[in-house]
Amino acid sequence: MVAVEPSRTAGVALWRQVQHDLRRRIDAEEFVDAFPGEKVLAQEYGVSRQTMRQALRPLRESGVVTAQRGRSPRVRTDVIEQPIGALYSLFASVESAGMRQYSHTLALDERRDPDAAQHLGLEPTARLVHLARLRFADEAPLALDRVWLPARIAAPLLEADFSYTALYREMAERIGLFPRRGTEVIQAVTLTEDESAQLRTPPRAAAFHIERTGWVEETAIEFRTTLVRGDRFRVSSQFSPATGFQWGFDATGTSDHPPVSAGEGAPR
Fold first, then answer.
1. Which domain holds residue 131?
2. Residue 252 contacts by C-beta under 8 Å, 6 or more apart in sequence?
3. Which end of the chain, N or C, is surrounded by fewer C-beta atoms within 10 Å?
């Protein structure tokens, strides 16, 4: 596919024209094997290195084009796929796709939160362990994750380092239990300015808001909210003649976002 050289009389910034054409070529899967360097692209489009750098910046910040030290840039095609109906692990999902998973811990403390306490069936003044993380897949942010657990059982988690581990794994090792079943509500949302900055997406980008309550027998022990980038995650379901289509939903809209696969019961 041939690059469309930008017009200097079109009334649109050169870098925007170049960026638009690069997205066209990316969508056409022209750069599956490799993505050209900045210098090569600048020559191809007949623009300066500075203009090309401006055109590439949004693609890099959104994770569409990635580059690691010592490696050539490439177009990210791996999006994370999650089956509906499994007690899944975002940690395991990322690693099963061959990507490096890690987290920046934004908060790990004991606090009161009446809304979270209500979801857990506790009094508004109940003490809760709160864990907030920015989750990464390779070098790009994937999700903002916040979890609340009853402090009476989860206090040992305050000593854990969540940089390279899953919450459910730490729960199993430190307190001897983790959710065996759960309920989730998945909703399409647009990110706020602060959320977009943390997840390195364009302003008001689409995302999934996932609200989970995890249970052990009849006791709720986890309330979680997760914001996942819409360009890197999708959900799937299974059906058969015997079971039918097993997927409950709130018909307030539709979503068509294409994603890593995870198994039931894996640590999250």
1. 80-245
2. none
3. N
C-alpha–C-alpha distance, residues 237 and 82, integer Å = 9
Q: Is the pTM of this model over 0.70?
A: no
Q: What is the CATH number of the domain that holds 136?
A: 3.40.1410.10
Same domain, 47 and 95: no
241: left (phi over 0), alpha (psi -120 to 50) or beta: alpha
CA distance 244 to 180: 24
Q: What's the number of domains the chain is made of?
A: 2
**Which DSSP string corresponds to 129-168?**
EEEEEEEEETTEEEEEEEEEEEHHHHGGGGG---SSS-HH
pLDDT reported for residue 32: 74
27: left (phi over 0), alpha (psi -120 to 50) or beta: alpha
